[in-house]
C-alpha cells in the first residue's frame, strides 16, 4: 500500500485535482446553454441546453496551459496579495502591530474575565462584514493580524484563521445584504433588492452563533491542553519575531499613530466597498498607500522600506502561486464544456421530487457546483436563471431558491481546495490543508445541518 511520509502540499493537491478535471472533460458529455445579458451580467437561458456534437476533452497541452490562463484570470487577486503582503511587512517593521497586540494582551491579563470576549466580538464584526459587503478576498489582509493576536492570547494559529475567515464565511453564507451574492441572484430572479431581508437576518444570526460556538469550544479545549491543538508543532516552530514582547516593542506615540492610521484605513475600506464600489484595485492601492505613509511616519529609509516590502512579498509568493493554479482548475472545466451539463442534469432531476426535497437538492447542488465555480456572482449568473424558473414550476418561492443558492455557495467556501482564497489563506497561515480539513469538516457539517433546517422555514411555516 502506498503511504505518504508527509501529506501532499497545497500545490500538489491542486495539480492532482487538475488531473481529475482533465479526465472529467473526456467522461462528462460536453454541452452548453445559450446566454443573454440581464442586469449587466451574462446569464444562461432556461430550456436552451444542447449536447455538443464534439467532446471538448482537454489534452496534455490544455492541462499545461491551464495554469498560465489561471494566472491571467486571477492577475488582480495575485497582485493584490503581493502588494498587501509587502505593505504589511513595512507595517510590521515598525513594531506597531506587536506593540498593539501587547497592549490587548496586557489588558486581558489585567482583566482576565474579558479574554473570552475577544473571539466572539471579532468574529461578529467579520461576520457582519461578510453579510453586508461580501468580505472575501479582504480576509487575506486580516490573517496577518489575527494569527499573531491568537498566539499571543494563548490560542493557536487555527483560531487566528477562524476569527476573520470563519467569521466572514458565516456572514457570507447567511448574508442579508451582500451585493455580490444576494444582489446578483435577486436581480437575475426579478426580485426587489433587499426583499426577504427579515428572514435572512435571522439566518445570519443563527449562522454566526453556530460558527462562534464551534470556534469557542475548540479554543476552550486547547487552552486546557495546548497539545490538543491540531497545529501545536507548527506553532511551536513559528518565528520568535511573531511573539516579541521585549522593551523595544512597547507602545509609543509613533506606533500609536500608526495603529490609528491602520484603523482609519480599515474604516475607509468598509466605506469604500459599501458606498463607492471599491474592489481589488482600490483596496490594494489603499494598503500600498498605508505602507508608504507608515514608512514615512516611522522614518524608515528608502532602502529599509524597499527591503521590508520585498520580504513581505516573499512571504506570500506561494499563496499567489496557489491562487493562480486554483483558477487554472476552473479554466479546464469551462474549456471542457462540462459545467452546463452538470447544471442541466441536476435541474432535470429536481423536478420530480417533493417540494422540501427539491429545495434541499437545490442546496446540495449549489454546494457541489461551488467546487467548480467558487465565485458567488459567477455561480448566481450561471444557476439562478434555471433555478428561479424551476422554483416557479415547483411552486417554490424564488426567494427560497435564492436562499438555497446563498447557503450552497457560502458554506463550502470554507473548505473547498479549488478556492484560491481558501488555499491562499492557509498558505499565509502555514497550515497544511489536511489539518484544516480535519478541523473544519465538523463545522461544515454543523452549518450544513443548520442551513437544511433553515430552508424548511419558507417551505412549511411562512411565506416570503
Structure description:
With 464 residues, this protein is mostly helical. Helices cover 71% and strands 3% of the residues. The strands form two sheets. It has a two-stranded antiparallel sheet with strand order 1-4. Helix 2 crosses helix 13 and helix 9 (197-224) runs antiparallel to helix 19. The mean pLDDT is 85.
Keywords:
464 residues; two-stranded antiparallel sheet; two-stranded antiparallel ribbon; 19 helices; globular
Largest sheet: 2 strands, antiparallel
The stretches of 5 or more residues where confidence is low (pLDDT under 50) are none
The SSE string, one letter per element, is HEEEEHHHHHHHHHHHHHHHHHH
DSSP strand count = 4
Specify the number of helices.
19
Helix content: over 70%
Give the neighbour order of strands across the main sheet.
1-4
Strand-pairing-aware structural class: mainly alpha
Q: Name the beta content range.
A: under 5%
Intertermini distance: 55 Å
Shape: globular
Mean pLDDT over the residues: 85
Give the radius of gyration.
23 Å
List strands and helices in order, with pairings.
Layout: H1 10-27, E1 31-32, E2 35-38, E3 41-44, E4 50-51, H2 60-73, H3 75-93, H4 96-110, H5 118-132, H6 139-152, H7 157-173, H8 179-188, H9 197-224, H10 232-236, H11 253-275, H12 280-297, H13 302-335, H14 339-350, H15 355-370, H16 376-393, H17 398-411, H18 420-429, H19 433-461
Antiparallel strand pairs: 1-4, 2-3
Helix pairs in contact: 1-13, 2-13, 3-12, 3-13, 4-6, 4-11, 5-7, 5-9, 6-7, 6-18, 7-9, 7-17, 8-16, 8-17, 9-19, 11-12, 13-18, 14-15, 14-16, 15-16, 15-17, 15-19, 16-17, 17-19
Amino acid at each position: 500500500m502506498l503511504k505518504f511520509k508527509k501529506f501532499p502540499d497545497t500545490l500538489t493537491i491542486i495539480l492532482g485535482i487538475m488531473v481529475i478535471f482533465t479526465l472529467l472533460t473526456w467522461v462528462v458529455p460536453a454541452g452548453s446553454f445559450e446566454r443573454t445579458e440581464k442586469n449587466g451580467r451574462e446569464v444562461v437561458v432556461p430550456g436552451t441546453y444542447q449536447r455538443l456534437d464534439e467532446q471538448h476533452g482537454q489534452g496534455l497541452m490544455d492541462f499545461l496551459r491551464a495554469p498560465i490562463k489561471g494566472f491571467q484570470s486571477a492577475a488582480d487577486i495575485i497582485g493584490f496579495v503581493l502588494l498587501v503582503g509587502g505593505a504589511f511587512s513595512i507595517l510590521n517593521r515598525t513594531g506597531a502591530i506587536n506593540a498593539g497586540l501587547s497592549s490587548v494582551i496586557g489588558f486581558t491579563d489585567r482583566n482576565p474575565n474579558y479574554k473570552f470576549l475577544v473571539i466572539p466580538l471579532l468574529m461578529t464584526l467579520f461576520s457582519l462584514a461578510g453579510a453586508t459587503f461580501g468580505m472575501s478576498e479582504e480576509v487575506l489582509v486580516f490573517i496577518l493580524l489575527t494569527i499573531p493576536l491568537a498566539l499571543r492570547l494563548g490560542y493557536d494559529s487555527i483560531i487566528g484563521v477562524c476569527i476573520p475567515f470563519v467569521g466572514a464565511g458565516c456572514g457570507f453564507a447567511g448574508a442579508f445584504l451582500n451585493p455580490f451574492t444576494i444582489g446578483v441572484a435577486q436581480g437575475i430572479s426579478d426580485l426587489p433588492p433587499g426583499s426577504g431581508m427579515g428572514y435572512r437576518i435571522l439566518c445570519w444570526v443563527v449562522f454566526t452563533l453556530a460558527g462562534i460556538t464551534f470556534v469557542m469550544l475548540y479554543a476552550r479545549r486547547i487552552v486546557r491542553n495546548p497539545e490538543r491543538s491540531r497545529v501545536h508543532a507548527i506553532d511551536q516552530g513559528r518565528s520568535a519575531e511573531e511573539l516579541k514582547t521585549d522593551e523595544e516593542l512597547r507602545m509609543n506615540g509613533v506606533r500609536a499613530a500608526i495603529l490609528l492610521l491602520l484603523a482609519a484605513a480599515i474604516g475607509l475600506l468598509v466605506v469604500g466597498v459599501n458606498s463607492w464600489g471599491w474592489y481589488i484595485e482600490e483596496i490594494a492601492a489603499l494598503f500600498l498607500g498605508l505602507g508608504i505613509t507608515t514608512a514615512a511616519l516611522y522614518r524608515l529609509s528608502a532602502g529599509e522600506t524597499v527591503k521590508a516590502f520585498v520580504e513581505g512579498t516573499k512571504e506570500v509568493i506561494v499563496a499567489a502561486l496557489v491562487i493562480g493554479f486554483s483558477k487554472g482548475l476552473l479554466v479546464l472545466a469551462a474549456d471542457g464544456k462540462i459545467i452546463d451539463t452538470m447544471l442541466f442534469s441536476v435541474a432535470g432531476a429536481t423536478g420530480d421530487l417533493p417540494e422540501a426535497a427539491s429545495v434541499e437538492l437545490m442546496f446540495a447542488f449549489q454546494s457541489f457546483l461551488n467546487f467548480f465555480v467558487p465565485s458567488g456572482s459567477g455561480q448566481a449568473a450561471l444557476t439562478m436563471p434555471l433555478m428561479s424558473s424551476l422554483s416557479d414550476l415547483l411552486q417554490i418561492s424564488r426567494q427560497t431558491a435564492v436562499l438555497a443558492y446563498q447557503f450552497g455557495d457560502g458554506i463550502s467556501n470554507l473548505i473547498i481546495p479549488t478556492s484560491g482564497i481558501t488555499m491562499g489563506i492557509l498558505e499565509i497561515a502555514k497550515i497544511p490543508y489536511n489539518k484544516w480539513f480535519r478541523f473544519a469538516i465538523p463545522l461544515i457539517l454543523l452549518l450544513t445541518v443548520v442551513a437544511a433546517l433553515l430552508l424548511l422555514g419558507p417551505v412549511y411555516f411562512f411565506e416570503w
